[in-house]
Amino acid sequence: MAVRLEIALKPHLFDAEGSELCRKIRDYFGWDVGRARVIRVITLETSLSPDELEAIRTEIFTNPVSQVSSFRPLASGDDFQWAIWVGYRPGVRDTAGSVALEAIADFLRRPLGKDDAAYTSKIFLLYDAPLQRAQVDTIARELLANDIIQQWRIYAREEWDAEEGIGLICPKVALRHRPTVEKIAIGSDEELKALSDARNLALNPRDIPVIRRYFLRPDVLQQRARVGLDLPTDVELETIGQARSDHCNHNTFRGRFHYKDVDTGRETVVDNLFKTCIEAPTLAVQARKDWVVSVLWDNAGAARFDNDHLYVITGETHNSPSTMEAYGGALTGIVGVYRDPMGTGKGSRLIAGLYGYCVGPRDYAGPLRPHLHPRRLLDGVVEGVRDGGNKHGVPTVFGNLFYHPSYLGKCLVFVAALGIMPRHIQGEPAEKKKPEPGDLIVMAGGRVGKDGIHGVTASSQSYSEQTPAGHVQIGDPYTQKKMHDFLLEARDEGLITFITDNGGGGLSSSVGESAHLAGGAHVELDRVPLKYEGLDVWEIWVSESQERMTVAVRPENLDRFMTLAALHEVECTVIGRYEDTGKLHLTYQGKTCAYLDLSFFREDFPQWEFQAHWRSPESRGLTEPVMSEPEDYGRLLADLLASPNLCSREWIQRQYDHEVQGTSVVKFLVGRCRDVPNDAAVLRPVLTSRRGLAVTQALHPPYGLIDTYHMVEASIDECVRRLLAVGGLLDEIGGVDNFCWPSIQYDEHKNPDGRYKAAQLVRANWALKDMCLAYGIPLLSGKDSMYVDGHLPGTYGERHKVSGLPTMLFTATTVVEDITRCLTMDVKMPGDWVYVLGETRHEMGGSEYYEKFGYVGVTVPKADPAAFLGLYQAVEAAVREGLLASCRAVGRGGLAVHGALKALAGNLGMHWDLGAVPVSGKMSPAVLLFSESLGRFLVTVAPERREAFEAHFKGWPVGLLGRVTEDPVFVVRDGSGREILRESLETLGRSYRGGS
Amino acid sequence: MAEVRALVLTGFGLNCDWETAHILTLAGARAERGHLNQLICGAKTLRDYHIFVIGGGFSWADDHGAGVILAMRLKHRLRDEILTFVENGGLVLGICNGFQVLVNTGLLPGFEPGRLSRQVALIDNDCGRFRDQWVHCVFEASSPCVFTRGLTAMDLPVRHGEGKFFAEPGILDRLERNRQVVVRYAFADGRPAGGAFPENPNGSLHDIAGICDATGRIFGLMPHPEAFHHWTNHPDWTWEKERYRRAGLPFPEEGAGLRLFRNAVDYVREQGAR
């Protein structure tokens, strides 16, 4: 029987969620709603007796101090203007619903029935809300619910039935479908291509002849006949489609690029960007650095933290799902990337998460209509990462936010994760793992549903009331945190011989890839526990249902493994066995449904080919703008600090638990008001050690408007300086490259500038290689996400392709030998000397300053690693010797912006003389203040260390800019001594903090 | 000297267990982490410990109210064991999610020892969001709480979305009268925050950040003392470092949060560890 339990705060208590809703309604739409209250609804479909129902109402679901509840509607209909009910669509992960069932079973001390279900939803009551129905519908559609995963109903007061309320709504998945295995006809390439399109297999046309040839080989046919197969099955083609996808196989990065410099006519063939620009430099660096332990093959890279520990790191993106459903997409993204360190080596413990968001302008009011407005999208993404990280018990320590209209088409959501593991587990190296024939294949964690099948291609399909909304998922950090804790205990007991996560491609990917290591695998797909019946066999195999790991366990260890799983209440199921047959063998109810030679996956599939045409910025017509020096530098600086890409993001970081685990040494936000981003965060992952781990990130898409080579240079150079600024070791810097690029395949109509975008990708990779070799940075991990394009409806029913700026987020880590030597960027004491290290050049192209006036320019900042490196070594030594009181790597916005931020953070003023800035040539004050030249630091030095500092940096480009003052004013004089800028910290702070 | 043994609860989405065990070790206890189900199945028993800590986290994802389901499980499975533990002089500390658990079991405010009754609640922050920030805490000198003896003020981080202390006026009066309000949110100068945001980060009535039971041996608070185990945890430590250096003073080692745990360990020693 179904009942509906409604729970609300007692009427005299302040409803914070309702108040936040009113605030957002005002913020989003400009409408005033006097008051809102929230009713939580749990709809139970169980066989509980009335007494039991009453008992769980009072004992579990109602707090007698703060709440009221009833199995009848709580809203009388006498006072509210509008009621909005919002609930999930069928099949959407409802963690609160499953937790409710867990709690009920625990309370009753008996398991519930197989079909018992609990669904949570909410009713929002709006009071003093003079709104029309259309407005309420907008609130539901654009603020409270997303029609991809949720459904809603709206009630005006006069429509409300105080007896029935919302009625009984049970979004149960009902698939009246008998699981089948279908055979696929491969009579011709065309036939297979047509079937691939019809079934959404996304097989690459170039792969199709290779696939057909395999299935038509006499020896293959003969072997298949022995297991009862002839034509390929849908399970097999899904497996191949998944294994050959760009997502899993990185066909773009492994492609062949015909690069042509159109200006000079010179042509070059670049065979495989991954091999030449990522793998080769990383192996070269690894060969001379013994701290680089495990790279280029596992879910995350591993590096030495100290003699007893390795740290691991990886970065991911979750762009398409977040564009469709911001909260669920970002939540699934962070929870998903957390499985990578869990599945690295024999498993590591999570120690930190990072985020990066690239979205359209928050106040976008143009004609294009993205599925979610950027404002709502950003709020959703921020909250998704918040809940995913916080509930996982992992500190979210650092992050980025970058606004640009090009991300209206598709937003970027970067998530990165760090973990730590002991160097050895039961005497074996922790980073090594290999399933052996005979090992059992165990699926741990959640169950399998239609989630994420074929990724977002499903989003264009139409919905019915009972169709699962499978393609967009909502991650469940609770289930995963339980699994995390369990797996670490199993690891420490030596029960895990191999582990990997189930992400893209699901079991098909995790078992498929690990089968290669063992030499074969046999999986009985009917053993896989399902969320609901009715999945086809291929769906079980490729489903991307979250919170699952695939583990290899020796048969003799299984009992202990399952006992530990039971203790932690983590569902684990043996679904098969690794073998040495050379085959991927799948059965369903005893019948073979896939029988593929593993060697087939290593066959010579055709390499993807790209035309890449480069034209220099000058030949593309870029020039420097013609503008005179400004007169009001102070107001200009204040306005820059208020610009969306420089202003305070405290509102984001404040929502993230960045201190759980007790490892926080240098926080992301520093200063007296704790709201200025520091260069890097520093953690102390081993609480009994003085060693620290520093981590930072940088991205510079605007420089890519001029040349993506210099865009990547800038990001890597900035990361290096940022790590030095907190006291990190120069020699132990590791990197993670995350590329997000629009489609680069040229098409006369669909992608007319594809060849240019391909050239941009090649150049970005060349810079990656050059910089990694120059600074000795191995790429510990990396990922590429292509197709950052969206097709947005405009005013007249037309659609516009919007391609995101080519973007590369660089994440870098290094070790800090002694955390007590760490520095932060805030100025510390009045009277301290302010120096600038490194040369300032006229490099205004792509700068925040130019952007303020709508210019791009052409003089993009360039790196000169050979020249910079000596200064960086001197900075590293200066930190070690304690010569600095604060340090800042100068980045976006130039000296003026970073000087102002240092002052704001320290809540102290500064007096500067621009005549002291080391330069080559003569420069105007605007260039000195706002040029974004790389290779520079702003530091402060205690008076008693001035002499030692100057001796230390003798011979390097260093200029004594001025002093820190008690008086909270930022004053700048030009080379002639004329005061050109005087602005109070109050004004600068108001600008910086005013935007959001 | 007798060994002081502490158990830090783990499982079901609880976190903060590693650093809580670490700070207990620094304070001189032998700290272990133990899964809730180990207590329930009897593999571990509170009889073997002097201090029982339920730390921060999101037990059962905090769905259906922070700490509610863990509280229910403790009450239904371990009620007698916990009550006996307290009766025999054991110390119970609930931090953040643990505090939420203690008020939902009714162990706090525990006006009448041995009776479990929910009298207070920790509800959504007034700001409507999770917040991680450092707060100034001031301690009630005349409180019976054994964890806070001799403490006057310290900075600690709060990290929660449901930390607003709420109770009806009669209960608040009783708490105040009994000096069970142990710790309050305050301004930097030590004056109670008077509800001012963000000094009072969640809108707690009477600025209440933590309370103890009538015996002073059960204590719950929203701020995280275990997160201030080392001086470098404090957001201002690099600033303080410059002051120490220029005054020629050595750097400190400990974080202020350690004092609270040392009090607990010292108390057990005074009572004569079993």
Describe this structure in words.
The complex is a heterodimer of chains A (about 1000) and B (about 270). With about 1000 residues, chain A is of the alpha+beta class. Among the domains of chain A are: about 1-160, Mth169, Chain: A, CATH 3.30.1280; about 825-995, Phosphoribosyl-aminoimidazole Synthetase, Chain A, domain 2. Chain A has a seven-stranded mixed beta sheet, with helices on both faces. In chain A, helix 14 (about 475-490) packs antiparallel against helix 17 (about 560-570), helix 19 packs parallel to helix 29 (about 985-995) and helix 22 runs parallel beside helix 25 (about 865-880). Chain B is an alpha/beta fold and about 270 residues long. The longest helix of chain B is centred in the N-terminal third of the chain and has 20 residues, at about 70-85. Chain B is globular, with a radius of gyration of 18 Å. Chain B has a single domain (about 5-270), classed as Rossmann fold (3-Layer(aba) Sandwich). Chains A and B meet through helix 1, helix 3, helix 14 and strand 25 of A and helix 1, helix 3, strand 6 and helix 6 of B.
What would you report as the Rg of chain B, rounded to the nearest angstrom?
18 Å
**If you average the pLDDT of chain B, what whole number results?**
96
The number of helical runs of chain B is: 7
Give a quick account of the main beta sheet of chain A: strands, pairing sense, barrel closure.
7 strands, mixed
What fraction, in percent, of the residue positions of chain B are helical? Answer: 25-40%
Q: Which CATH class of chain B applies here?
A: Alpha Beta
What's the end-to-end separation of chain B, in Å?
11 Å
Mean pLDDT score of chain A: 94
Percent strand of chain A: 15-25%
Look up the CATH topology of the domain at 825-996 in chain A: Phosphoribosyl-aminoimidazole Synthetase, Chain A, domain 2
- The end-to-end distance of chain A, rounded to whole angstroms, is 48 Å
Percent strand of chain B: 15-25%
Low confidence ranges of chain A: 456-467
Reported by name, the CATH topology of chain B is Rossmann fold
- CATH-level-2 architecture of the domain at 825-996 in chain A: Alpha-Beta Complex
Radius of gyration of chain A: 29 Å
Annotation field: number of helices of chain A: 29
Derived from helix and strand composition plus strand pairing, the structural class of chain A reads: alpha+beta
Secondary structure class of chain B reads alpha/beta
Order of adjacent strands in the largest pleated sheet of chain A: 18-20-17-21-19-22-23
| Element string of chain B (H = helix, E = strand) | EHEHEHEHEEEEHEEEHH
